[in-house]
Here is the input.
Amino acid sequence: MTARMLRWLLLGQLFAVLVLALAGARWLGVSPFMTVLPAAGAVLLVRLAIVANNFMMSRRYGSPVPARFALGLRGRLRLFFGEFYATMVHSSWIMVRARACVRIYPGDGAPPVLLLHGYGCNSGYWAHLQPLLDARGISHAGLDLEPTLAGIDEFVPLVARRVEELRAATGAQRVILVAHSMGGLVGRAYLRAHGSGAVARLITLGTPHHGTALAAFAPGRNAAQMCRSPRTGEESDWLRALAASETPAMRALVTSLMTHHDNIIAPQTSSVLEGARTIEFGGVGHVAMGRDRAILSCVLDEIGKARAAVFV
Here is the structure.
């Protein structure tokens, strides 16, 4: 469903380019071929403006950036255009073609990895991590969390089914959940519903554990559940109920990777989950976390530690 929605959005953008090119050609009295590039540039500027607006809103509702993560002009430009590039490539190329996959390698019973994407995305979000898992012979699977705008608890049966499929295929007793954004809340909801017996570790990237103000402007039951009031900072009832259901042992399973320059999670410190381990980054945007070398290296390191701990 998400891939189809993204394809329709992409077709809409291409249609807008065509309309602008024809209108420009008629107005200027030139061939449409002369106005295609300016028309495409106009559409790109709209996409650029959306990313810029997200950054502005995330700072308006954001938490202070620690001094050690402060950016100069060059760093801010790298942050902005890195996020714009990641957003364009993922939404207009990778995710429109993505299909959830399962890769099983002969192993020693070490936990395989289940990849959970975030809001408005699909399994294609992990296109940069999956080759790294393949190179290390780590069994893994993707999963498309659909319907796109459903409540978070509605995704839990999909996760439970895939967890059992991975355990059966690999012979492992437990799996490692690696989750971006909303996917981290899906992972926690799975733990609430099924317990921690089948999970060795939950590694979250840019997850709004305490909600995000920007969710107030997004559609869907899942967005409402992730909401943190822009006016009062109050978390949704769903988030408070989830937190109240968790034991210290469940929280100890979580490693939360956050970026102090997240342009979707605001305040950025929403990714800090009490009782979990937090690993901080800076200079990386929300979508770009899935392709940033330092973050992916950290994820692989955490996966390695969780797999090794099984045999201790």
User: Anything to note?
Assistant: Strands lie at 102-103, 113-116, 140-141, 175-180, 199-205, 254-259, 277-281.
